[in-house]
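User: Structure please.
Assistant: Input sequence and predicted structure:
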Amino acid sequence: MRRIIPALALLVVGCAGSSQFMQPSQTPLSLRPPADRAVVVFVRPSHFAFAINANVLDENGRFLGDAVAGGYFAVAVPPGHHEFVVWAENTDAIAADVVAGRTYFVEVAPTMGAFSAQMHLRAIKPGLPSWAHRDEWMRDSKGYLPDVAAGQANLDKRSGDVAERLRRGREHLGKYADQDLREHTLGANDGVSG
């Protein structure tokens, strides 16, 4: 029993994560958006539950990437309204209204779950405490490149589960109010200019 406890602690706290659908970038990722797109950066600064990854999907169930402990990835999206969903033991979502030429930031925050880590999406924007940590989190996190084709193929095998996760994400967004709603929405002006 004494040997099990340190092993469990390592799984919970750990160092760095990995995912079969994410490749470490050998150079810093460019966060500069194309002229006709916005960039959304998903950063998971915490190393808590490093062995647990979570799929991040868009509102259509498309694979965007896995949230790897101590890592970040960036996706270019068309301007307009988007909903992003994280799929772990739980489901959480964030709504974003983005404009071309801006970069937006989302924290993927793990917490203890019943059987595994839960993941939460939180806006990183002016007026929230996370904004003061943004540069530090980006500096201290490793950039990853999603293998979108492989990640999507994995999701395509579970289309019923994907539809259910999207439904749950929309349900969560509909229930948020006040501070929770602020933490789960990004507005056009919450991004930084390219």
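The chain has one domain: 21-188.
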